[in-house]
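Supplementary notes for students who missed Thursday's class. We covered one full example, reproduced here. Read the sequence, then the structure, then the short commentary at the end.
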Amino acid sequence: MTALPAPSGPPAGASAGRLSAAAGRVAPALAEASRRTGVPFDALFQTARLESGFDPDARARTSSATGLFQFIDSTWLKTLARHGPRHGLAPATRADALGLRRDPFAASLMAAHHMADNAAVLAARTGRAPGQVELYLAHFLGAGGAADFLDGLASTPDRSAAELMPAAARANRSIFFAGGRAQSLAEVYERFARKLGGGPTPEVPSQPTLPTVDAIGTGSAQAGSAGDALPNALHTARLAYLLLADLGA
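Structure (token representation):
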């Protein structure tokens, strides 16, 4: 796995008891995803904070982005097809697959894998391990979009970010514009850097209480065992079919 930035650790005096109620509810899922994948808890925590305010049911008004990490439909289905089977995630239908975005544990696992995939792409493009801001840009813009953004930042930092990323700008005007003025690549980058540094990270919960993988495999905490449903190869094939259907293939 490409090296990811090490957790920064909690600020002095920070503890789970000081978290907001929403953050406290999802912190165990973030911790377990970090433990299983090696992706830093800090990176997952701060991304969930910025993307949804720790709300597993959050839904964007300008796109299909849903859940704790605001995955759009196509990115979620692609990530779930690639990494879900190893965790027993076996949704029976497209609706069930997309519904898993609202499960904090499933969403955290897929966000961690997605972050690691993005880190590998960015490292190949830039020749270095990405930092936390670069990883968030990759979650926000996609790995290819983030690489293009960083290339533009290095060569023409004063260029309008909306000009380089028009689709992202249409869906996220508050990020790309301020006071009616288009923000530069440097200004957008600095905005993300401030946001990522603007909230404390708690200590990693030592004994997370989570649903079993079998329970979330079908998208419901009361569902039966997903491990008995299909072999992993068939899980992957079914999810790939759902992805192609979502893309209109």
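Commentary. Strands lie at 177-178, 181-182. The chain has one domain: 19-200+217-247. If anything here is unclear, bring it to office hours.
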